[in-house]
Amino acid sequence: MNYELCRFIFHFLFFIFYFKMDRRDFFQSFHRAEPPMQEVTPVPLLAVSRQAMAGEFEVSFDKTLYPWGTEIAIAALDEVQRLERKLSVFLPDSQVSYINKVAAFDPVPLDDELFELIRFCLDLSEQTGGAIDITSTPLWKLWGFADKKVRIPTASEIANALETVGSRFVELDDATRTIRFTRAGVQLNFGCVGKGLALDAASRVLENAEMRDFQIHGGLSSVLTRGNFRQNEPGWTLGVAHPVYPGQRLAEIRLVDESLGTSGSQKQFFLHQNRRYGHILDPRTGYPSEQTLMVTVVARSAMLADALSTAFYVMQPAEVEVYCKAHPDVAALLVLASEQGSRFEVNSFGFSEAQLGRYYELNGTMSTSIVVASE
């Protein structure tokens, strides 16, 4: 093989490796040497993964720091599967399935974990003006996203479904630690918080075993980090993928003992009469959000980041800004369809310069602009 051919193959493989997006739809971890020409010893990350909650959960850590970490990572993933068996509406013997069958007729006793989870969801629904609601299953089914048979429901069908949607129909009794529904047809679904809850639970398993530096991915849209990727580099840097242009990065976000949740409809949507309908429904109106393309939220807990990414997706940018100002530990990155023809807008709220260091133009170069022109 001659020199020129070898050189061509080397550069081709380097291009593919460097620019190919990770299998996760919305973000990927990456780290660069600073300054660019400085050599950095690669971190020997070990990844332990398992399928759960309709996605892949993966624990990554430095195997030289934690040579015994594989067993602990497996225990952390066991915790994810425990929560799936408890919360899944697709498992007829799960606790949530039992609640959905009985709570409209009799109070159902809850353990502390489930009681506090429901309390968290009800409180967050109130804080966001109903933008997130764990009782929105009737809408999800009506639009056909539950069984993959999508359709456009009529206005009267949506109105009928909304009669059984609302946190006001869920009552928790603090004294008896029970739940009951005040209307027949109400159903709980924790899809908006389940992966985040699982990441927080898995993190506790790792931390209780004295692991301090790790990253956990949950499905396609959630990540939790603790400690550092490198000892001389605080936190973990994530590249946020562009919601419109595959292979393009939109921004970099550095997480230091924080979590990230992303919501978007790039994968789950359908077209009808030249209109695009995504799977994220506004529980207040019964219709999908048409303005938002993607939302990324950073928060201390993965459950909060997961839930808020769903809520912010259907909220107005001004509402998101108000929420982030009132909650300094929360930051949000919104990609919105613009009314100005073929443009879209990127809005960020609550980020520090250390967290959100740069944006990228479509050609991959850095930009400080928050309005990016599309083709």
| Overall radius of gyration | 22 Å
User: What is the CATH topology classification name of the largest domain?
Assistant: T-fold
β-sheet strand percentage: 25-35%
Strand order of the largest sheet: 2-3-7-8-11-14-15-16-19
Shape: globular
SS field, number of helical segments: 9
The rounded distance between the terminal residues' Cα atoms is 42 Å
Oligomer: single chain
Q: In CATH terms, what is the architecture of the largest domain? A: Roll
* Biggest sheet overview: 9 strands, antiparallel
List the domain count as a whole number: 2
Task: Report the mean per-residue pLDDT as an integer.
Answer: 82
The helix/strand series, from N terminus to C terminus, equals HEEEHHEHHHEEHEEEEEEEEHHEEEEE
Uncertain residue segments:
3-40, 361-375
CATH top level assignment of the largest domain:
Alpha Beta
**Main structural class:** alpha+beta
- The residue fraction in helices comes out at 25-40%
